[in-house]
Amino acid sequence: MKRFVATVFVIGAVFLFSAPHGALAQTSSLAPFYIHLNPNYPQPYSSVVLTLSGNAISINNSTFSVLVNGKKVGTSTGRQPVSFETGASGKSMYVVVRTNFNGKVYTRTVTLHPASVALVVEPLSTAPMWYPGTPTIPSFGKVRLVAIPNMQINGKPLSPSTLSYVWKIGNETLQASGVGKDSAVINAPLPYRENSVSVTVQDPKNTQTAQRALTLVSGTPVVHIYENNPLTGTDYGHALSSNFGATIGSSESTFVAVPYGFSLTGATPIVTWFLNGAKVQTGPMLTVRPKGAGGGSATISALVEKDSAYESEKAQIPLQFGSHTGGFGLFGL
Predict the structure, then answer these.
(1) Topology of the domain comprising 222-332
(2) How many Cα atoms sit within 13 Å of 223 on the Cβ side?
(3) What is the pTM of this model?
C-alpha cells in the first residue's frame, strides 16, 4: 500500500535577549523590577503583553512607560499591562521600560529578535498515493516530527544543520536530540490517550531559542471499498457505501479495498474478502462475475488486519446484478 505523507504546520517563535541566559529570567537579585512577556515566545507580527513585578520597588505604587525602538508604545500604573506588536522575523526590537517610584526612575532594557519555527507532523500510516487529505495518526505505529526553524542574524538565515534540537515527550528528553537533528520518529499515542511533544531549538552560541509544543492524538483506522475500472483505474473520489453499494452488469467487476490510517510499522496490512459472509480470498482486489441468468443481490466485505498490531477494521457493501428474472449466482474470482 502506498502512503501519502501529510504535513501539518504549527508556528512558534524565538527571542534573543540582551541579558545573559535570557533576559526574561532576569535572575539578578539587584534588579529593581522584572519584565514579563506573554506569551513567552511570541510570533513575528503578533501581540505581546508586558507586565512588571517588583523586587526593590513597589510596583503597585509606581508608574512605567514602554518604548520599542525609541518609540513610546504605552504607559501604565502598577501591575496593569502594556501591549505592543512584534516586528518582522530577524528584526531587532529594543524594549525599554522606565519605572517611576518615589521620584526615582529605574530603567531596564530587553532586546528581542522575533523568529519562527514550524513543526511538521507526518503520520506514518497508510493512504493511497496522491491522497489529498490528512492521514490519521496510527494508534500502534509511529509519527515523524520535523522542525523547520527560521532564525536570522543580521538578515541572514542560520543553517538548520548548525542548530541544536531537544525533542521531548512530556518531560522526557529523547535520544533523537542533538546538533542538526531536526527530525524525530516517535511512537504514536495509544488509543484514547495523547502525547504532548515539544522541540527546543538553539543556535550555536545559545543566544537564540525557539520552542514549540503540541498534542498528538491517534485516530481510528478505516477501510473504504472502491470500484476499479480496467480503463480508468480506481475511482478514489467515490467510495462505495454500505447504504448504496454498487450495481454490476453481466460482465465481471473488480473492487479494491484501501486501508486508511493503519500503521506502516511492521507487516503490511492483510486484506481478506468475504462473499455473503463466506471467505473468498486474500489480497487488495476482488473480481466478481455473474453466472447464469436473471438478477439478484449479494454482499461483499473486506476485513483488514495487521499481525504486528491490534489493528482491525472491516467494510462491506451490497451488490445488485443482472435483471431480476430468474435464478442467478455470483462468483468471487
Answers:
(1) Immunoglobulin-like (2.60.40)
(2) 25
(3) 0.76
Q: 226 is written with which cell numbers? A: 472502491
Average pLDDT, the chain: 83
- Start-end ranges of CATH 2.60.40.10 in the chain? 222-332
Instruction: Identify the pLDDT of residue 304.
Output: 95
What is the distance between the alpha carbons of residues 283 and 309, in angstroms, rounded to a whole number?
19
More confident residue, 125 or 129: 125
Residue 306 contacts residue 267 (beta carbons within 8 Å): yes
Angular region, 103: left φ>0, alpha ψ -120 to 50, beta rest = left
Note the pLDDT tens digit of each residue in 169-181: 999 999 999 999 9
